[in-house]
Amino acid sequence: MKLLIAIARTLVGVLFIFSGLVKANDPLGLSYKMQEFFEVWNIHRLDHFTLGFSIVMIVFEIVAGVAILLGWRMRLFSWLLLLLIIFFTFLTGYAYLSGKVRECGCFGDCIPLTAGQSFTKDLVLLLLILFLFAVRDRIKPVLAPVGSAAVLILATILSVAFQWHVLVHLPVVDCLPYRAHNNILDKMKPPPGAIPDSTVITMIYEKGGKQIEFDASNFPADFNDSYHFVKRYDKLVRKGNAEAAIKDFVLLTGAGTDTTQAVLEAKGYKLLVFMKDMDYVPRSREGLGVLLAMARSKGVPVYLVTGDYDELSGWTRGIGIDSAVTLLKCDATAIKTAARSQDKPTIYLLKNATILNKWSYADYGATLPAVAELPNSANP
What we know:
It contains 12 helices and 8 strands.
C-alpha cells in the first residue's frame, strides 16, 4: 500500500507542477481559453477578470503539486485537489461532449491535447486523487512544518514572478506558430493531403425566455419573429486529420482590401508592429518615432497592425507619422495569438515572410540594434 500511495502522490504532484509550469509560460493563453468558455456560456462580464483567474489557477496548480509531494496538510489539499479536478473534469467533459470548445488548454500551446484526450486525462487524475483522498490520513509529511511552509512560499513567489516576467516580455518558450524562424505563409497552408474539419453552422435563438439551438438545415417548424437571435458558432461534426497552424491571420487596408499576400510576399525586410488597441499606444510615441527613423534610414517598411483601426488612424495622423507607416486592420483574435505581450505593442522583424525575431515593447532596447545591424538599403 505504501508503494501504491507513493506512486499516486508522485504522479499527481508531478503532473500538477508540470501542467502549472507549462501554463505559467503563457498565462495570457489560458486567459484567452477561459474567455472562449465564457463566450460559449454567454457570460462575457467575466472576460476582464480572466487574466487574474489564470494567474491564481496556475499558482494553485504548482503549489498544490508541491504540497502533495511534500505530504503537507493533506486533509486540506486533498479536498482542494478533489474540488479542482472535479471542476477540470467538468470543463473537459463539456468541451468533449458538446464539441463547442476544441481544446481545453490543459498544457497550453506547447502540448496541445484534443478535448477527448484532455477528458481522459482528467478522468485518470480523478481516480488517482480519489484514492489519495481516501488514504490522506496515512500520508506523512516529508519535511518539518517550517520547512514545508518555506518550500511552498518559495514556490508561490517563483510562480508569480515567472508569470510577471512573461507578461511583461514574451513567453520564454515560444510554442506558437509565430515563433522566430517560422515562415508565416508556409504556416498558413495545410499539410499536403490534409482533410479539413467538418463543421456545421449552429445558431442559438431565444423564444419565451428559453434558448433554442439548431443548425441551418433544421429550423423549427414554427420559426417566426418570436425567435430572437442570440449567437451562432461552428460546431465540429468530424475532426479532420490536419489543419493549417495559422488560420486567421488576415491583413486588411482601411478600405477592407485583403493585403496579406502582398505584404508577406514582398521581398526584403519589414517590421510589423502589433497594437491590439489604444490602451498602451500613447506611451509608445517616443520609442516608435525612433524606430521609424531607424527603419527609414535602412529602407525598411513599417506596418502597424491593429484591431482598433479608426482610433489608431487618428492617433498616427495626430502625431504626424501617418506617412511613415502603413496602417492595417487585423482580427483581434489573430493579434492575441501573434502578440502575447499583455496590452503592449509587439514588434516583428521579418525577411520576406519569415520571422527573424520578435520583441515585446518592454524589450524595445533590443529592437533598435537589430534594425541598425541590417545592411544599408536593406530592401531593393
